[in-house]
Structure formats: structure tokens, C-alpha cells
Amino acid sequence: MNTKKRILFINPYPHDKAPSQRLKYEQYYPHIREAGYEIEYSSFYDDEIWKVLYKPGHVFAKVAGMLRGYFRRIKDLFRLREFDIVYIHLWVTPVRPAFFEWLYGKVAKRIIYDIDDLVFLKEAKHIAWWRGMLKSRKKPVHLMKVAKHVITCTPFLDEFTRQYNPHSTDISSTINTDAYKVVNGYQNDHRLILGWSGSHSTVAYLKGYTDMLQELAKTHDFKLLVMGSADFTIDGVDYEALAWTAEREIPTLQRFDIGLYPLPLDDQWVMGKSGLKALQYM
């Protein structure tokens, strides 16, 4: 008879694609298994929709991908009771209402809720207004209420969570120092590289530096290296924009001489940032 406890991870994104999953808990899957647990994971977005999700157009592919995601969540619903723990990251389904979150809360034996960023905000300066209309504050708040424990990533987020659940722990994203190694000898024998790593959703913060970077390029010789937003452009600056891949991430970070980490303090969204980018740069 199998006596191992079983954990089902309910993930928003495909495996090993999104930083909030990879560096919060996916990198610990082998350690969780070594500790005697059996784990499975189920992603709402699959690899097919992930390729086009944040690109303009591709309406049919996006609709088909969303339908596949909802179908997976319905299938998962009927096996939740097979698992001792259901670990939910961010949400069960991406758009309102909080129906699936309510269902999962009723059926699962025990929920651990992992919240990264202030996903309960309806508005943020870097998010289009229509995307905000699709979000529901009730989803994360409901999951906070029904969870046996909540894992947050910043003191601000932890304080907010404790309004609904006293059982929360602030655990920031972590870096595997066996993989992330410093290679820059800080020698001035090459062209200076200013680097930024992020995603489609946070590149708006980098674009806020446009005027500054353009002025800097008039007096200093440097290259801007952008990872995570392959369609990024900037006039008057020598730049290289790359899509993120797991294989490319660390070698690209190691090319940075100076890492850029713009966080506009007038945007409440940044209060959910744990400083992961700074850790990666270092």
C-alpha cells in the first residue's frame, strides 16, 4: 500500500516557463519528492497557447487554449480528493468570477495558497484597463480564506493576507547558487552592457526609462540587453532584445555589467515585488 502523501500543484502557466513558478516552488520539486511526497502538476495554460498568449491577434488559438484550460480544470476537479494537499498558485482560472476557486475550496482536502504579486488589484499602471476588468479581487481573497496556509513573498502582501488568514508565511523567491554563478570579473576591456530581465507585463517599467537611456546614449557608449520581451524597441539606443528561455536565462544574465530594476513608487503593484530581479543580477 502506498503511504506517500500526494500533492497536486495547480499552476497558471506551463511548467518551467514563468519566473513566479520556477523560482517560488518548481525548482524544489526534486527536493519535495526526496522528502517522500508524490507530486503532480496541472497548468491552465499549455505550451501551445503560451506561444501566442501575449502576442496581438491569434484569436482562434487563444480561444482554443482557454477552452482547453477550463477543460483541464474540470477534469482536475474530479481528482482533487485523491491528493492530501492541493497547492494553488495565484488562481484556479484566470478570469472572473471566482466559481472554480469556490469549487476547489469545497472539494480539496487541504489547500496551500501561494500568492505572488498583488494579483488582487483591479488596476495597475502597467496592465491594460480591459485586462483589469477580467480580473477578480474575489479569487485571491477567497483562496486566502479557505487555505490551510498561505505563502506570500513580501511583507506588504503578508500583511494584506493576514486580514483573511492568520496562517501565512512570507517566503521570497530564491536563487539556486549552484546554477547562478558570478562570472563578470569587472574588467573595463569591453563595451558596457546595461541589462534588464523581465516579462511582457513588466517591460512597461523599462520603457519608463526611455528618455534617460536615450540621453545617456548621446554621451556614453553602451549596449542595452533586454531579456523577456523580444519585441522591445527603443530609438537612439543600441539594443538587443531576446525572448526568455530556460537555456538562455543564466548566460544572458551573466553578460550584464549593470542590471536595471525600475520600480515606479506611484504604482502599488510594485509593493508585491520581492526583489528577485536584484538577486538574479547579483
Please sum up the structure shown.
This protein has 282 residues and is of the alpha/beta class.
Question: What would you note in describing this structure?
Answer:
- By secondary structure, this protein is an alpha/beta fold.
- It folds into two domains: 6-170, Glycogen Phosphorylase B (Rossmann fold, 3-Layer(aba) Sandwich), CATH 3.40.50.2000; 192-281, no CATH class.
- The chain is 33% helix and 16% strand.
- The protein has twelve helices and ten strands.
- The protein has helices spanning 19-22, 29-34, 47-50, 59-77, 99-107, 129-134, 138-146, 155-161, 203-207, 210-219, 246-253, 276-281; strands at 6-11, 38-43, 85-89, 111-114, 149-152, 168-170, 192-197, 222-227, 239-242, 258-259.
- A six-stranded parallel β-sheet has the order 2-1-3-4-5-6. Strands 9-8-7-10 form a four-stranded parallel β-sheet.
- α5 (99-107) links the parallel β3 (85-89) and β4 (111-114).
- α5 (99-107) runs parallel beside α7 (138-146).
- It starts with 5 loop residues before the first strand and ends with a helix.
- Residues 124-130 have low confidence and may be disordered.
Order of helices and strands: EHHEHHEHEHHEHEEHHEEHEH
Question: Can you list the strand order of the major beta sheet?
Answer: 2-1-3-4-5-6
CATH topology of the largest domain: Rossmann fold
Distinct helical segment count? 12
The fraction of residues in strands falls at 15-25%
Cα(first) to Cα(last) distance is 47 Å
What's the number of extended β-strand segments? Answer: 10
CATH architecture of the largest domain, by name, is 3-Layer(aba) Sandwich
How does the major sheet shape up?
Answer: 6 strands, parallel
Rg of Cα set: 20 Å
Judged by helices, strands and strand pairing, the structural class is alpha/beta
In total, how many domains does the architecture comprise?
A: 2
Mean pLDDT: 87
Shape: globular
- Which residue ranges are poorly predicted, with pLDDT under 50 across at least 5 consecutive positions? 124-130
Considering the protein shown, what is the CATH homologous superfamily of the largest domain?
Glycogen Phosphorylase B
| Helix fraction bin | 25-40%
CATH class of the largest domain: Alpha Beta
